[in-house]
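Example 3.2
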Amino acid sequence: MEILLSLHNILLSLHNLFRWVVLALGFFAVLGALKNNAKPLRIYAIFITLQFLLGLALWLNFLYLYGFKTKEFLVRFFVLEHPFLMTLSVIFSHIALARSKKGGNLWKILTVISMILLIVGIPWWRPLIRL
């Protein structure tokens, strides 16, 4: 059990630090979309997917350690709401990337939606940097 708790703390620290990279890349993806440049979106989509996989490992470890109690706000947020919003953000980023190859403006809107979902889904009340 101690190994899983240590793994949880390591994953949580990595997930927390990597969030800033994904946020910065998302910001550049939105700026790139405004300039009709999809290359920052491609990089953002790759990194948000890596962050998602890291979060998935953290989520599975969390469920194993603490279980699933939806009445507690924090547990409900980290077991249901946060993963749901982040999954949608990843999906929108990849759809935006696919649509960028076809041209038009829809990919730009989807990029912004992905970024909004990312910002809304982040637990801002938690420590901004966790080591």
